[in-house]
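Entry, Tuesday afternoon. Goal for today is a structural model of the target with zinc ion bound, before we commit to ordering more compound. Inputs were pasted exactly as handed over by J.K., no edits. I checked the ligand SMILES twice against the vendor sheet because last time a stereocentre got dropped in transcription.
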Amino acid sequence: MTRYHRALVAAILVTTALALVHGQGPKAPNVYYFQGATLITGAGEPIRDGALLVESGSVSRVGTRASIPAPAGATVVDLRGKTVIPALVDAHSHLGYTDVRTGDTASSHYTRDNLIDHLRRYAYYGIAATWSLGLDRGELPYELRAGPVDGAALFFTAGRGLAMPSAGPNAQYWRDAAYGVTTEAEARQAVRELAAKKVDIVKIWVDDRNKTVTPLPPSLYRPIIEEAHTRGLRVVAHVYYLADAKELLRAGVDGFAHGIRDLEVDDQIMGLFKARPHVFVIPNLPDTPPSGADLVWLSETLPPTQIEALKRTAATTPVRPRLFEVQARSLKKLAAAGVPIAFGTDAGVGAPYGWSAHAEMADMVAAGMTPAQVITAATRTSSEVMKLDRLGTIAPGKSADFVVLDADPLDNIMNTRRIAKVYLRGREIDRASLSRNWTGR
Ligand SMILES: [Zn+2]
């Protein structure tokens, strides 16, 4: 048992003891009754004038206010006029490398404190959990996964992803975090090391980065996939070209961390998806940098110098990024065909943490998915893909992870940005004090 675990156990014992003492009084300390909101549960039609009962961090009952009375002693939270959605789940991130206060990126920033800072930013913006896809270092990611931090998103990891040497992630500061493999023996050995760490998924890069590097060839990714499957692990691929995506599907890949960017999906690949219905796609549409009202929103979590830097970026960036249209058309087709559409931001590559999840949801609607489909992707499907059975919907037995909004996102997906409160594992995130810490205001 680590020092952290001992501290955690001690904290739980104290909390439990206090709960027992208080339980003798009129208040039931761990029972919360949220009343009056529209509940978008993800487990059925939205419930108007809803009631949500949370006990000891878990959802125990969900229904209309008329059908579920407030239990004696429960703390009643009035949410009339609000809309509740399940907390978001980001299946593609690269946290830890940016000092958000200065915008500086470096491998030296990859520390426990900085990772936790980023996971708190996720919590602030309503994200409950994330998959860190392939750029993690040392023991830190596994320690963080084993010991979740109060008030922060849950962290899951692919550990070190695999590519040809220096042919994985683009930026220099994290290029060495990935395995560089050139032989089948090296590739299989890397997967065995990852399996020993019990990674949540294996990440590979199959991309020539605009003909500047050698992409991982089928002669290497086939044995990687085979070795991973033998050890009960799935493989998710960074991909760019349609031809590579087809070959990866034939090789048994389990998911794509990006959309296909050179060509629109064709009948042949749709057939390959149909034959392997569990294969998921994390669309990861290209971002438009924040501007206008979003910069006001972001000023809750970023210092003024960073807001100014974002303004300069927005002024020099086209409104719709290159490669948006082709990916949007493909996404619409894939969603219509029933391919599992998960959700990811690629956070760590530019756009502000947390904000980028809300931008991605709006982009997915712009691509032709409905707001309801997008919320499902960002909550239920992402949780299913990540095998997080306590997240993704608001239903009895689930962890009480949800976002309270001032307006209904089914009317306008931009309303996901109107966050009133965030609850993770049954506890409200203290957004006001986080904001004060980050902005000094
Ligand atoms: Zn990525």
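The first strand starts at residue 31 and ends at 35.
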